[in-house]
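Researcher: Can you fold this with magnesium ion in place?
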Amino acid sequence: MRLCGITENMDIVLLGSTGSIGTQTLDVCRAHKIGVRALSANRNTALLEAQAREFRPECVCVFDESRYSDMKARLADTYIKVLCGMEGLCGLAGLKCGRVVNAVVGMVGLLPTLAAARAGNDIALANKETLVAGGRLVTDCVRENGVRLLPIDSEHSAIFQCLMGAMGNKLSKIILTASGGPFFGKSRAELESVTVEQALKQPNWSIGAKITVDSATLLNKWLELIEAVRLFDVTPDQVEIVVHRQSIIHSAVEFEDGAIIAQLGTADMRIPIQLALTYPKRLPCPAKKLSLFDAGALTFDRADEVTFRCLAAAKRAVTLDGSAPCIVNSANEAAVALFLKGKIGFLQIGDIVTEALDSLKIIQNPTIDDIMSAKSAAEEFVTSRAGI
Ligand code: MG
């Protein structure tokens, strides 16, 4: 029998184990002796090998197929099965387990999320692009298969926790907090010459490169707005984005009587990750505890949508609905990748995403094929627009 201590036979499949959320998930597994059935990485075979030797999963998957033979050679002396590509990732997600933790970056996470739900697995979701691009395809699949979708994103975990005490009462508003990123208060002129290094300075959280840039452009907050709409069944108008520089309040909900319930804590992703694994139980966590005396003054500001064009484009996409959120998400993924390679400037990310939304055809009630076509069209648009 696998290790437990939380619930009998609790074990996980972890997709994206070498990234920031992945390594912090393994910290939680280490602390509570949670078993690991499978691990996957994009291309970091050295770290995946080290993790496999420590956690002894049944199988691992390396998404980048060109790394398959390297991975196979690294684990040749073990019984661990090695898979690769999207087929491998979906195969892992379909293994029966206590939770599938989806911590991959980008829309790559969509098909594995559907595979996990179809196999009857509860999903701890850190991959917000899945919900944004897949939309109702994902929420319907989760509902039809009777599985739980447990948010890892700190804001959504906070909202989820605030609603744990709702006793069936309806919420009237979600207050979605944002750190504001490294460029809060800056004008467009000041952002003309921003470097990759400056964009990667996230003030409060330890997170990966793509999401750090999304946090700097504020697009991350829009992805989270859609995520909240999908997870908590509210309208976009019921979600208020509030810039809260200290990242102490991780989000809040307002009920119909005007009472607001918030969740507070240190900015440590291991708290929401752990709750998604152990829910409904709360266990001691390796993260530092919050002292309100050390926190000091808390501030709240409106987001600047004139400077940060991504946010404005993205809000428009919510209203347009259909494949529009997928277009914005995919155009952003492609534009951020080009920015990280130094091929386009920081402000061009928002400009290109806006143009993609204005130019590409939007399909209502998209199928999975429509979603995949919208993704390719957005990627092609970004490549041609950037002149590459
Ligand atoms: Mg977040």
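Model: Folded with magnesium ion in place. Residues 153-155, 224 surround magnesium ion (CB under 6 Å).
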